[in-house]
Amino acid sequence: MGHNIITIANPKGGVTKSTTAGHLSMSLAQKGTVCAVDFDRQKDLSKMFFLNYPESFYDHANTLTLIKYETSLENTIKNKYGVDVVVASPNLRNFSMLVAKDITYLDRAREILRSPATSNYEYIIIDTPGTGIFETTSAILASDIVIIPVTPARWSLDTLKDFFKDLNDAIKLGSNLSKILILPSLWGSSAEKEEIYDQLQQIPNVLEALKNAEPGFELLPKPIILNPIPSSESIRKRSEFAEPLGE
């Protein structure tokens, strides 16, 4: 069975990456087989599935033990809401040091997530940190699709140019990335938010202009702007209390 590997990424924190990864995983699990991988030592995605579990729950089989080949995928996953979850733990802080000592660690996620061990999954969703360029790069190297959540703040648009260069570099290194999806999140209906949304709609044209003006963007697919996710108290509460959204 083939699968899509989807990374949720944005260098900025607080743009609903973990919320997006969690609810996307739960939603897709109603239609097919899903594995969710938490690549953020803050464990927000892990806690969406395993709220109020003791810290020891995350210590012995997690993303880093999988990356280091200390545990197999089968022995690492924990199932909740029909999703197989690879939880994170604070020891992910050591990932950058591992990569600095041995660059092959950067490609471990791709090796594992594209191995026969994952052939039963239709979707693999990876959550990434706001900080931690090595974790994000490792995830993108493994991915077919990247979803970039953005919130209605002008600074969230300013980071996209640099991040596009990071994505282009990942493709140079062998990533199969073929789709870039930009997801407006926590959106409202004020005039300012409408103006920012109009700016988002221009990103494909801006990227095309960048391709013609300077190096570093030439391999990127045309970004697709998704429909906005509204700011919702229901979504916030269900995320906070680790509950899936309704149909």
N- to C-terminal separation?
25 Å
Looking across the biggest beta sheet, what order are the strands in? Answer: 3-4-2-5-1-6-7-8
- State Rg: 18 Å
Q: CATH H-level name... which superfamily?
A: P-loop containing nucleotide triphosphate hydrolases
Level-1 CATH class name: Alpha Beta
Number of helical segments?
12
Helix content: 25-40%
What is the overall silhouette?
globular
The SSE string, one letter per element, is EHEHHHEEHHEHEHHEHHEH
Strand content: 5-15%
Number of domains: 1
Summarize model confidence as the mean pLDDT.
90
Uncertain runs are none
> What's the CATH topology label?
Rossmann fold
Largest sheet: 8 strands, mixed
Give a count of the beta strands, DSSP E runs of length 2 or more: 8
Shape-level CATH architecture? 3-Layer(aba) Sandwich
In terms of structural class, how would the helical and strand content be classed?
Answer: alpha/beta
Quaternary state reads single chain
